[in-house]
Design brief:
By secondary structure, this protein is α+β, with helices and mostly antiparallel strands. The chain contains 3 helices and 5 strands.
């Protein structure tokens, strides 16, 4: 049964399509201030929001990365999304990197600061 994608999911799909076609890309994460949850990560592509994570009690950075990269890996019957990547959501950056590595991609952190992070995504 097919479900209609949200606007952000459609943007994530386009983001991942561009990454596959180019063999990778730079992922910029901006940490925007939230009145309820402190700073929350936002990933944009073409000036449109691709991923966002808020709340507390989990790793927001890994959740935003998984949301942005949810269409990068082939879909599996078992998980319903790309290569088991959804299991890493909120579990930490190293979990996301390991899952991507197992599927032929590398995710390397290239810069970080109080209000930003940058990553280089490339084929292994």
């Amino acid at each position: 049964m097919k479900t209609k994608l949200t606007k952000m999911q459609s943007r994530a799909r386009n983001f991942c399509r561009a990454a596959r076609e180019n063999g990778g890309m730079t992922i910029n994460v901006e940490w925007r201030k939230s009145s309820s949850y402190g700073r929350c990560p936002v990933i944009e592509y073409g000036r449109e929001k691709v991923a966002y994570a808020s709340g507390c009690g989990y790793d927001k950075l890994s959740a935003a990365l998984v949301e942005a990269l949810s269409f990068l890996l082939p879909e599996t019957e078992e998980t319903g999304c790309g290569g088991g990547l959804s299991k890493c959501s909120g579990a930490g950056l190293s979990s996301v990197q390991t899952c991507l590595q197992e599927n032929g991609w590398t995710l390397e952190q290239t810069a970080n600061g109080k209000t930003f992070d940058a990553f280089k995504l490339s084929r292994a």
